[in-house]
Write a structure and sequence with these properties.
Layout lengths: L4 H10 L5 H14 L3 H14 L3 H13 L3 H15 L2 H13 L3 H14 L4 H13 L3 H14 L4 H17 L3 H14 L4
Helix pairs in contact: 1-2, 2-3, 2-4, 3-4, 4-5, 5-6, 6-7, 6-8, 7-8, 8-9, 8-10, 9-10, 10-11
Length: 192
C-alpha cells in the first residue's frame, strides 16, 4: 500500500480519517495531471467540503478553468487568494479575469502581483497576453522588456518570455522587434 501512492490515497480518501480530504486532494491533482478536469473537480469539491483549504480552492479554480467555466474559476481563485494570500492564486485570478474578457481587471491583478513578486516570470507573460488581447500589444511588449530586465538571471523564464514576445511582435508585424527577440532566443539557446 505504501509503495503505491494511488492506492494509498484512494484508501485515505475513503477513510474516516481527518486526513481524508488530503487523499481526495491528491486524487484530484492526479486527475488534473491526467487531463480529466471533470473528475478532478468532483474529487476536489468533496475534499473542500471535508476540510476547506486555500490550496484546494485554487485547484478547484484550475479544474473549472480547464472546463471552460471561467466565472466559477474566478470565484474559486478569489476565494483561494482571500484565504491564502498567495500571489500564485492571485495570478490565476487574473487569468480567469482575462478569459472572461475583463482585461482591465486582469491587468490590474497582474500588476498587483508584479509589485509584490517582480521576478515572477509568468506575470510578464500574462501582462503581455492581456495587453495584446485588449488591443494594446505595444504596451504588452513594453512590459515584456521590463520582465526581461527582471528575469536576467532566470534563463528558462526569460527564454519563455522572449518566445512569447516574438509571437506578439509577429502578430503586430513588428518585424525588427521579432527578429531581435528570435536572435536573443537563438543566442541563449542555439539548439532551438
Amino acid at each position: 500500500l505504501y509503495n503505491d501512492p494511488q492506492a494509498f490515497y484512494r484508501c485515505l480518501a475513503a477513510s474516516e480519517s481527518p486526513y481524508a480530504a488530503h487523499g481526495l486532494q491528491f486524487l484530484g491533482i492526479h486527475a488534473l495531471e491526467q487531463d480529466d478536469p471533470r473528475a478532478a473537480y468532483g474529487l476536489l469539491e468533496k475534499a473542500q467540503s471535508l476540510h476547506p483549504m486555500a490550496t484546494t480552492e485554487n485547484l478547484l479554480g484550475l479544474s473549472a478553468l480547464r472546463l471552460g467555466r471561467y466565472e466559477t474559476a474566478r470565484e474559486h481563485f478569489q476565494s483561494a487568494y482571500d484565504a491564502g494570500n498567495d500571489e500564485g492564486y492571485r495570478l490565476n485570478l487574473g487569468v480567469a479575469q482575462m478569459r472572461l474578457g475583463d482585461y482591465d481587471q486582469a491587468v490590474s491583478t497582474f500588476l498587483a502581483v508584479q509589485q509584490k513578486v517582480p521576478r515572477y516570470g509568468r506575470v510578464y507573460e500574462n501582462l503581455l497576453t492581456a495587453y495584446e488581447e485588449s488591443g494594446a500589444p505595444r504596451t504588452g511588449l513594453d512590459w515584456g522588456e521590463r520582465g526581461l530586465d527582471c528575469l536576467r538571471e532566470q534563463e528558462n523564464e526569460s527564454l519563455r518570455l522572449l518566445v512569447k514576445m516574438a509571437g506578439v511582435a509577429y502578430r503586430c508585424r513588428a518585424w525588427d522587434e521579432m527578429r531581435r527577440y528570435m536572435e536573443a532566443v537563438l543566442k541563449r539557446n542555439p539548439d532551438a
